[in-house]
Batch of 2 targets.
Target 1
Amino acid sequence: MFCENRQLAEEWTYRYLAAARQWAYTERDALPRIAPAADSETGDAPAAPEPSTAEVRAWAMDHGLPVSDRGRLRPEIWQAWRDAHR
């Protein structure tokens, strides 16, 4: 939302969120649309994306693993990251 200043933007955002919260509590049909179904399983969810090479490189450097400043990471580094973040 665009407003003239930050104070107005915060005020309108809080009003919008308060109205949305009130609607969610008072609208009879709202809960089935905004709450996950009881029989849904998280197994259908996609796997978390792999981290970027820069993130793994920073992690490896923090843990004392030898990595170059640029280029591809060795498979051992990726495997060490996966083992540490299961």
Note: The chain has a mean pLDDT of 83.
Target 2
Amino acid sequence: MLGTFQQSHIRIEVEAPQIAIHDSLLYSERLQQWLWPQRFSLGLPEQLHPELTFTTWMGPVAIQHKVEVAQPNCLRLLLSQGIDGYHEWYWGDGWVQSRLEGISLLPLNLGQSLSLLRLRQFLASQR
């Protein structure tokens, strides 16, 4: 894999209950809404579950995701292709935490920060 090893760990406050955050991270329809402009492979099931594999695209860069853990307050994705690493999400009432590590040419910290801001805006619009 070409690129540099990068790691980023961000926790933000959100005005949303745990269940709203859960639904926004584990239900594919909602996930696709707030992660726009990222494109998702077709045929995703309604809810993410362990062993599910899907692909997203950031422009021409494909990123394969394999769901390793999907629980009421935790999601762990193993990443390959455009990012070689993992992405963990933890959440509770009023907060979301994201940890991303991998080798990539993409600026992972910037992408992670923008994603968390989009999630916060999406959750605010759902109230």
Note: The two ends are 42 Å apart (CA to CA).
